[in-house]
Design goal:
mainly alpha; about 280 residues; 2 strands; about 70% helix
């Protein structure tokens, strides 16, 4: 029977389906409320400080010049400023923690379209969730712009990995299901799972092969080109292929791509110059 227990077991088994609602609007609203509350408290503290400073009571007037006196005022007739400061400290600490937590939540990646569709379809399938969620709870994953994933795979995906995972594998699975009707059932949870690590291993092998092949191939090609214009054109082509490979197979920053491309093209320039001199 479908239940939260079965849903939890599914998510525990497949980390790609660890998809949760972000509650972005609620988080922002809570921060705005805390911000407004602190603003009012800050103004209240300023008013209290002005009253204390203008007081004819020597002890009360000294509160703004001595933290020791301010702290010792607790329990006295002029403890208002210290109490207000402590109230602000408590709320400010919670506000700062909320800001940090919200920034961490915002940094979590969104799930892939394929993983989200798989999750939504499982909730509706008779052999899956079988519509066990009712009322408002059934709407938790409807807003696709307000969900996040805890999957480490999604955070580490490069362009090619994302394309293979979201396009190639679904296409392969659909093709497989047409030829093998038994492939439609999946495992006991009704989900077909393709090993992510196997896919990454293959793509890592391809990227390593290209990283080894491109530099040597460019030098090899330049050796057989006699025209200077042809050499320069070949350098442009290989440089473009190299930088494009970095963009597609890695998550390198732009500055790293520029640096790596410059390092790649420098030996080619030297080779072209020496070959021209010869």
């Amino acid at each position: 029977m479908a239940s939260y227990n079965r849903l939890a077991a599914l998510i525990g088994k497949y980390q790609e389906l660890a998809i949760f609602k972000k509650f972005q609007t609620l988080n922002v609203k809570s921060l705005l409320y805390m911000q407004a509350e602190l603003l009012h408290l800050e103004n209240e503290l300023k008013d209290i400080e002005l009253d204390d400073e203008s007081s004819k009571d020597i002890h009360r007037a000294s509160l703004h010049t001595s933290v020791f006196n301010l702290k010792e005022s607790s329990g006295s007739d002029y403890q208002l400023q210290w109490n207000k400061a402590m109230e602000i400290r408590d709320k400010l600490e919670r506000y700062n923690k909320a800001l940090v937590l919200f920034s961490q939540v915002q940094a979590l990646p969104a799930p892939s379209v394929r993983d989200l569709r798989t999750f939504q379809e499982w909730l509706d399938r008779p052999d899956g969730g079988d519509f066990f969620l009712r009322g408002r709870e059934a709407e938790m994953w409807e807003d696709e712009g307000d969900v996040l994933t805890l999957s480490r795979h999604q955070a580490n995906k490069d362009t090619v990995t994302g394309f293979v995972n979201d396009v190639v594998i679904p296409w392969y699975h659909d093709l497989r299901c047409r030829w093998d009707k038994g492939a439609q059932s999946g495992d006991s949870s009704g989900v077909w799972h393709y090993q992510y690590h196997s896919m990454v291993a293959v793509l890592n092998g391809i990227s390593t092969f290209l990283a080894s092949l491109l530099p040597s191939t460019s030098i090899f090609m330049l050796y057989f080109l006699e025209s200077s214009v042809a050499r320069l054109a070949a350098i442009m082509v290989f440089t473009t292929v190299f930088s494009s490979t970095l963009v597609l197979f890695t998550k390198a920053r732009r500055v790293d791509i520029f640096a790596a491309t410059t390092a790649f093209v420098s030996p080619s320039h030297l080779f072209a110059l020496f070959a021209q001199d010869d």
